Every structure is written in structure tokens, then in C-alpha cells.
Design the sequence.
């Protein structure tokens, strides 16, 4: 079987290079270029964003197209030479302009100089032009006409249409950019489509149902550049329809996977029913994830949906749910000032998980002393959860209102066992601990949010208004836990330290949070006309209460009766009140020259006062606390934006902010459970609140055009006063008596870097992404009464390179690296490295057959253990059949080398841990799926 897939992979690579050779041969005549300038024939000014389309004159086949830049110029490349062509210039409100030409084989270039276009005369007959322009600017809205893109209407979806437009880039991580500007949301007919996940719309809506795709900016409400929105406009006779999937597969080792979804939509209502059942580590936390599993685009050569071979344990997952959206207005075009939409969804999840974890930990003590701990942990958990969320959105000319709710109920039962062994490498004293825990827990939660925004006109004659926003959030969580735990601690060198516990815990709890936020628009507008500065008032208020009732009993071995543990049994009520009023003053200095540049300098200063009170009432006197804190939290920022029209946008900023944190009850005065033998947290009633200073620098640059270039980086410096540090006190048997202390000396530095680059050349697309994150921190800590400063360096790096040729070929390479190192004076340091290298290839063969394969090489290195290497190799062969590719048969071979592992490799201030967890391993599966779909009546 392995040899078969090696031959299949070699065949795929051979096919790739042969296709490349064919493409080069075919494209050898596409070397021509045309240049020119478009002007208004009457006023003689240049025409920005006019559409220049090049057609083959013989049959009006679209070859290439482009929008003119801010100076009215265009340069269309990759055109055939020695062939009669036709240039068509279109612009809203103007007559189409046509010009036939031939690019000679000698010059391979034509300069049209100037095209003068005429304004349209409504009294004259329209000039009929064969071939609709594929793209145009309609005011500030970019419009792409899908019918003009020459797609395969039998199988193409919205995603395929976007890939045909040079100005639009679909990144590997799902992000969409238009001329370098990121699209913040995607809508269908002006509203969210089945929850707003862009993949649901892009991978299911057929191009035959789409009239056009629009890109526009939302209404500008502040000095900031508003986000971009993409809107798919459906044809008038395609305003309703349905799509879905019914599929299932069975494989070796009794592996199975089934997915189903049926989604129906109209101008007012969207309804979807979904379900999934498998034992191959495919899990989902929401309805949208299940819908993505069942998209018409499917896995194909994209390899978007595969079992989680990196997930810990073996998981059996069953789920079902539905989602509903109803638009009371039934709008088919976006209208920013009108909205009335109701949404609701429900999801049932039934899971079973089995986990076996083997972990070794090295703890560095004072001097050259070290503790070596081995831990084997097994877990079997069963759980059922019910989840429901919903919202109501109402928007009118002067009012915005939104209400959200969520309900959740979880029931879990399980059994956990733990075998621990600890040895002091210097004194050779050792201990063992065996623990078993059964639990039966029930949790219920509900959340309600409401947001109201008003634009109040208080002086209509002078058109003066005042805007304000108010939000309210209510959250409640209650539950009942029943836990049975036995603990058997034994010392080989000190039998007097042996301990045995057999305890039962019954606990009931109720936690409630009320929070509200209020903010105003510019208060200076109350007494000034068109103020250049902005003064805003804001306030947040939060009230939290947690009630708990705990009954703990110990089994008396003499008579077999449970005896109440009077120390751990307790009734407790904890409350906090948090108020944060503040004022924000900002001023913008704007300078711009139309079609040339835009400069904006923005200054902001904010002062916030924070009042925080915490109170606890308990049966235990030492837990009765009443504390108040009062802090002033200033912040300030400077931001400079520069936009070179049609070229790039740059942004520079520097910011300073302060914040504070407060110790909780578990840090101040916890109830200490002696059955946690290896870790006893005593708490510290003298803890003070922390105060943090943060200084940040940020830079970003976004290119505008076809081959987008996006680059951003940031630097953040942080200092925390009264840092809450750990004080660990280990004995010779490895038992730790822990409490928290305030300490000075904490410093931290964060650096992040992100680069995106896209190259588009006719049918070929290359995308490059580079991401880096670096963190340095210096943390104070205490070990056995001695103070230390732990210097920690953490970093993550990823590089990805993706190539695609139409929808026929996809290649990708991804490199990931995680590093962590920790060091302190007079102690051995720890170092961890985790590499992950992935290669993936997919190709669509003739007769609707596709082949895909991916190989991931993993390597983990620790200063404490031997390196661990393993490779995961997966392959798929599939075939789409029936008219419209509505059915799919797929064979999958997963973890072909049977090497899959889940490696644990991490470090802390004074410890490092390595180990493995059981994971899903090799299996083969045959899957059959059917995709019912119809758009229009």
C-alpha cells in the first residue's frame, strides 16, 4: 500500500511539470502589452477607475481587463500577438468606447495614447456592445460582473469568481484583500449569509446565481478609515434556493465519519439543519464549523477538512443542530440605515474521549538540586451539551438596537487516574502517589446582551446632534459537582510521611455578573459648530457575585461511615464592584490632495479612574475580607497615516497605557485541600494590587494593486509594579508548599511581525506569508526562600508559500518553529524546540478526478530528553460525478507511515516537561457523498 502511494505521488509531480510545460507553450503568444490614457472628451480630465477590457474580436472572448489608475492610465499585459483584438472602455454614465487593433510580433506593444470617452445621452439609443465589462467602478463601489468572467457554470462557485479578479486576493488563511485592503465582512444581498462565515457563501453559491460582487466601504463615523465590505448580489430569479451534503465513510479499525447539511434560503429566511458523527477526531464547537465541513467546494485539492491527527486522545463525536435567520424587511440590497433581523441556532453535542498521557518533568531547585517527576495520567470522559444562541438586530435612521442571548447546559461524567513518582536527584529521596477520581458534573449558563445607540437631534434648525451608546451584559452560571477522590501517598525513605485520603465532594455554585458601558460622541459639538477636537465621556460598571456551598466528607475506615470534613465544608459569598469612568480627548490634523495623497495625524489622551471593591463572606473567619482600591489610569497615543493614492497606505503609531490587577480569593485566602499532596497553595492575605505600564510602537504598510504587499510590525514594552510572583517551598520528597508574593523586577518585551505578498500572473497565483512573534520576560520568583530572576525567551515563527494554477493545481509549503528557553543565576537552564514542516499538493485530473497528498515532518528537542521525530503522511483520491459534480467518491489513506505521535514539550520558570499522549493513527477509508443544490425556483 505504501509503495502504491509513493508511485501515485511521483505521478502527481510528473503531471504537474507536464502541465507547466503545456501552460508555457500555450502562453508563449501571450506576451503583448497595451498602454494608454482615458479622458473625458468634453472636460478633458482623466478618468479614474474606468474599465478597460480586451476581447478577441472574432468571438468576443474576454482575454484580460483592468481598471485605470488615479491618473487615468492603464497597462494591460499578457495579450496575444498577431491576432485581431478589441479594446472596450466602459464607465458608469458614459458611452462604451471600442477600438480594434493587432499587436505586431515585432513590437509586441501598442500605445493607444489617449481614449476620449463621451458622456451618455439618455435621449439616444444605447450602443450595444457584445461582451459585458467584467469589472467597473460605480461611484465608490467596485462591481465585478460574474457572467463576464468566463467560468465553468456547471461547477464554479463564488470563490472561483474572486480568484479570476486580479485586484482580489484570497489568502491561505481565509482572509480576503482588495487592492491590499482587507475585507472585514462578506454579505449576500446586503445581509449575513448563514452566520456570516465567508466560506459558507464563497464555497456554496453557484456563479449562475450571482449577478455581481460589490466591494465598498462602510459609512465613515470617525477619523479612522472605515472597513471594507464585500456583498454578493444574487440575480432576481435566483433569490431563493438550497444547498447541502449527505455523506458518509467507513474504514479500517472500524473508523467511520458522516456529515450532513441542508440549507435553504429566500429573501427573508435562511434555515440550515446540520449533523456530524465520527470517531476520527473531527470535532466542532459551533454550527458554522459543521457547515464548513459540508460545503459544495468540499475538500477537493484544498485539503481544508481532515481528521485532527495532532489532537490529544481518541475522540468520538456526535452532533446535530439548526440555525435560523429571518429578515422582516426582506431587503435585497444593502442599506446602512435600515435593518430588522432575527437569528437563532441550537446545537447538541455528544462526546466521548479517552486519553493516556505519559509526562516527565524536571524541577530545578536551589543549588544543584533537582526533582525528577514521572506522571502517567489516564482519562475517560463522556459529555452531553446543549447550546443555543440568538440575536435581534434593529436599525433605523437614528437608532441602533441589538439584543443577544446564549444558553448552555453541560453534563459530564468520567474517571481519571494518576500515578506519580518523584525523586530528588541529589538526596535520592523518592515518593509515589496514586490517585483516582470519579466525577459527575452538571453546569448551566445563560447570557443576555443588549446594545443601544442613538443619534439625537437636539437642534434641528442648526442640525446639531448628540450620539451616545449604552451596553448591558448579564451572565449567570450555576452548577452541581459530585466528585469521589482517593489519594495514596507513599514514601520509600520516610514512611512517617505516608498519607491516604478517601473523600467525596458535593458542591453547588451560582455566579452572576451585571455589567454596563456608556459612552458619548463628541461633547464639544454641544456648544461648538464643527469642532476640530473630540471630547468623549465613557464609563463602565460591573458587579459580580459568586455563591458556593461545599460539603466534603471523609470515609472512616473503622466503621465505613462518611465523616464531615469541617475545614473544607463551607458556605461562601464573594462580591466585586468595578467602576471605570473616564474622559478621552483627541485631535486630528488632516491634509489631502485629491488623487495624490492623504495625510492624517491623530493625537489622543485618556484619563480613567478605576474604583474596585471586593468583599467575601464565609463560614471561615480568615476568609472574610473587605478591600477597596482606587487608581488613576492615564493613556495616550499618536498615530500618523499616509496614503499615496493608488500606490500604498502607511501607518505609524506610538502609545502609552496603564492598567492594574487585583488578587483573587484563591490567592489571598484559599481553603487548602491536603489531599493535593504534591501542591498545597496556602495563599497570602498581604497581597497588593499590581500596576502595569505599557509602551507600544506599531508600523504597517499596505500596497494597492494586483500584486498586493502587506507588512506590519509592532513592539511592546511592559513593566508591572507589585508583580504577583510564585513562592515555592519543596521538601525532599518533592512536595511543594506554595503561596503568592508581591515582587519587583518584572519586565517584558513583545515583538510581532507579519508579511503578506501575492503574485498573480494570468492563471498562476503565488502567495507568501511570514509571521514572527518574540517575547522576552524577566520574572521574579522564590524557591525555598531564595529570590531569583527567571529570564524567559519565547518565540513562534511560521512561513508559508502557496501556488495555484486556476482550479487545477495547488502546491503549498509551510514551516513552523516554536522555541522556549528559561534561565536563572546559578541554575541549569531549559531549552525547548518544536519544528513542523508541511508539504501539500493537489491536482484535478481529467474526468473530474482529483488527487491530493500532504506530508508533515515534526521534530521536538528538549534540553532534558532525547529528540523525538515523526512524520504524518496523508493521501486522498476522489472523483466527482453526475451533472454538476453533485456526487463524490473518495478513498483516503491517513498516517501512511504509522508514525503519528502527540509530543508534549514545554518549560516554565523553573521546570521543563516532555512526554507523549495517545493519538489517532493509521487507517484507510472510503467515502461517498451527494451534494443536493438548486438556485432559483
Sequence:
Amino acid at each position: 500500500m505504501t509503495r502504491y502511494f509513493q508511485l501515485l505521488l511521483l505521478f502527481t509531480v510528473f503531471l504537474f511539470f507536464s502541465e507547466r510545460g503545456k501552460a508555457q507553450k500555450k502562453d508563449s503568444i501571450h506576451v503583448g502589452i497595451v498602454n494608454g490614457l482615458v479622458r473625458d472628451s468634453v472636460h478633458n480630465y482623466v478618468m479614474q477607475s474606468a474599465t478597460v477590457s480586451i476581447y478577441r474580436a472574432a468571438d468576443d472572448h474576454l482575454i484580460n481587463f483592468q481598471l485605470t489608475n488615479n491618473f487615468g492610465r492603464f497597462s494591460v499585459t499578457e495579450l496575444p500577438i498577431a491576432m485581431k483584438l478589441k479594446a472596450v472602455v466602459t464607465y458608469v454614465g458614459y458611452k462604451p468606447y471600442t477600438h480594434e487593433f493587432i499587436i505586431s510580433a515585432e513590437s509586441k506593444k501598442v500605445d493607444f495614447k489617449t481614449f476620449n470617452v463621451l458622456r451618455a445621452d439618455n435621449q439616444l439609443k444605447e450602443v450595444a456592445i457584445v461582451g459585458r465589462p467584467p469589472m467597473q467602478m460605480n461611484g465608490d463601489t467596485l462591481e465585478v460582473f460574474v457572467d463576464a468572467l468566463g467560468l465553468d457554470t456547471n461547477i464554479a462557485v463564488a470563490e472561483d469568481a474572486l480568484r479570476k479578479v486580479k485586484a482580489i486576493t484570497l489568502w491561505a488563511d481565509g482572509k480576503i484583500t482588495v487592492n491590499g485592503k482587507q475585507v472585514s465582512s462578506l454579505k449576500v444581498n446586503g445581509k449575513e449569509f448563514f452566520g456570516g462565515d465567508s466560506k459558507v457563501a464563497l464555497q456554496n453559491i453557484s456563479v449562475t446565481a450571482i449577478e455581481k460582487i460589490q466591494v465598498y466601504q462602510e459609512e465613515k463615523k470617525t477619523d479612522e478609515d472605515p472597513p471594507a465590505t464585500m456583498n454578493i448580489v444574487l440575480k432576481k430569479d435566483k433569490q431563493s434556493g438550497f444547498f447541502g451534503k449527505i455523506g458518509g465513510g467507513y474504514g479500517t479499525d472500524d473508523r467511520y465519519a458522516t456529515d450532513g447539511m441542508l440549507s435553504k434560503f429566500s429573501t427573508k429566511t435562511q434555515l440550515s439543519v446540520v449533523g456530524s458523527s465520527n470517531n476520527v477526531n473531527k470535532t466542532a464547537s459551533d454550527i458554522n464549523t459543521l457547515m464548513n465541513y459540508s460545503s459544495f467546494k468540499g475538500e477537493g485539492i484544498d485539503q481544508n477538512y481532515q481528521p485532527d491527527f495532532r489532537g490529544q486522545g481518541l475522540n468520538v463525536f456526535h452532533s446535530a443542530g439548526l440555525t435560523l435567520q429571518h429578515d422582516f424587511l426582506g431587503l435585497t440590497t444593502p442599506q446602512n440605515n435600515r435593518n430588522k433581523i432575527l437569528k437563532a441556532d441550537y446545537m447538541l453535542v455528544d462526546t466521548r474521549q479517552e486519553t493516556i498521557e505519559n509526562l516527565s518533568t524536571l524541577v530545578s531547585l536551589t543549588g544543584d538540586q533537582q526533582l525528577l517527576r514521572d506522571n502517567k495520567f489516564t482519562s475517560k470522559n463522556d459529555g452531553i451539551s446543549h447550546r443555543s444562541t440568538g440575536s435581534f438586530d434593529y436599525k433605523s435612521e437614528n437608532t441602533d438596537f441589538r439584543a443577544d442571548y446564549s444558553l448552555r447546559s453541560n453534563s459530564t461524567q468520567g474517571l481519571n487516574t494518576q500515578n506519580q513518582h518523584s525523586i530528588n536527584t541529589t538526596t535520592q529521596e523518592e515518593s509515589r502517589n496514586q490517585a483516582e477520581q470519579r466525577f459527575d458534573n452538571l453546569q448551566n449558563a445563560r447570557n443576555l446582551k443588549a446594545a443601544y445607540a442613538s443619534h439625537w437631534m437636539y437642534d434641528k434648525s442648526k442640525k446639531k446632534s448628540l450620539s451616545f451608546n449604552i451596553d448591558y451584559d448579564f451572565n449567570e452560571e450555576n452548577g452541581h459537582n459530585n466528585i469521589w477522590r482517593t489519594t495514596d501517598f507513599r514514601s520509600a525513605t520516610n514512611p512517617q510521611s505516608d498519607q491516604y485520603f478517601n473523600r467525596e465532594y458535593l458542591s453547588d455554585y451560582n455566579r452572576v455578573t451585571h455589567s454596563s458601558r456608556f459612552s458619548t460622541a463628541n461633547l464639544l459639538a454641544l456648544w461648538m459648530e464643527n469642532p476640530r477636537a473630540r471630547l468623549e465621556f465613557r464609563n463602565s460598571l460591573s458587579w459580580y457575585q459568586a455563591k458556593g456551598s461545599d460539603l466534603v466528607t471523609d470515609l472512616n475506615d473503622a466503621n465505613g461511615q462518611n465523616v464531615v470534613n469541617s475545614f473544607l465544608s463551607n458556605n461562601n459569598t464573594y462580591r466585586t464592584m468595578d467602576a471605570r469612568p473616564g474622559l478621552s480627548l483627541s485631535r486630528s490634523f488632516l491634509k489631502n490632495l485629491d488623487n495624490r495623497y492623504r495625510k492624517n495625524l491623530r493625537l489622543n489622551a485618556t484619563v480613567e479612574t478605576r474604583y474596585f471593591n471586593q468583599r467575601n463572606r464565609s463560614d471561615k473567619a480568615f476568609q472574610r475580607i473587605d478591600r477597596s482600591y482606587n487608581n488613576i489610569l492615564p493613556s495616550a497615543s499618536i498615530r500618523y497615516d499616509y496614503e499615496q493614492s493608488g500606490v500604498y497606505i502607511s501607518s505609524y503609531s506610538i502609545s502609552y497605557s496603564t492598567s492594574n490587577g487585583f488578587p483573587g480569593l484563591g490567592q489571598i485566602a484559599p481553603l487548602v485541600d491536603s489531599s493535593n499532596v504534591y501542591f498545597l497553595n496556602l495563599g497570602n492575605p498581604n497581597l497588593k494590587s499590581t500596576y502595569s505600564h505599557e509602551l507600544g510602537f506599531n508600523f504597517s504598510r499596505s500596497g494597492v494593486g494586483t500584486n498586493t504587499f502587506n507588512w506590519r510590525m509592532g513592539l511592546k514594552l511592559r513593566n508591572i509594579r507589585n508583580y504577583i510572583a510564585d513562592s515555592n517551598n519543596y521538601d525532599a520528597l518533592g512536595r511543594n508548599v506554595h503561596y503568592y508574593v508581591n515582587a519587583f523586577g518584572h519586565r517584558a518585551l513583545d515583538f510581532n511581525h507579519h508579511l503578506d505578498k501575492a503574485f498573480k500572473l494570468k492563471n498562476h497565483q503565488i502567495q507568501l506569508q511570514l509571521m514572527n512573534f518574540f517575547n522576552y520576560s524577566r520574572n521574579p520568583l522564590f524557591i525555598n526562600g531564595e529570590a531569583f530572576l527567571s529570564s524567559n525567551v519565547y518565540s513562534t515563527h511560521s512561513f508559508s508559500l502557496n501556488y495555484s494554477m486556476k482550479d487545477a493545481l495547488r502546491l503549498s509549503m509551510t514551516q513552523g518553529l516554536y522555541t522556549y528557553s528559561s534561565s536563572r543565576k546559578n541554575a541549569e537552564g531549559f531549552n525547548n524546540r518544536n519544528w513542523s514542516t508541511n508539504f501539500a499538493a493537489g491536482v484535478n485530473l481529467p474526468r473530474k478526478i482529483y488527487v491530493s497528498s500532504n506530508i508533515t515532518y515534526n521534530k521536538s528537542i528538549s534540553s532534558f530528553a532525547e529528540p523525538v521525530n515523526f512524520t504524518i503522511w496523508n493521501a486522498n483520491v476522489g472523483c466527482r460525478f453526475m451533472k454538476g459534480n453533485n456526487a463524490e467518491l473518495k478513498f483516503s489513506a491517513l498516517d501512511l507511515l504509522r508514525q503519528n505521535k502527540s509530543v508534549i514539550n514545554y518549560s516554565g520558570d523553573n521546570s521543563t516537561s516532555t512526554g507523549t499522549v495517545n493519538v489517532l493513527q493509521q487507517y484507510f477509508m472510503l467515502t461517498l457523498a451527494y451534494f443536493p443544490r438548486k438556485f432559483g425556483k
Notes: Confidence is low (pLDDT under 50) at residues 1-27, 123-130. The first strand starts at residue 30 and ends at 40. Residues 2-26 form the longest helix (25 residues).
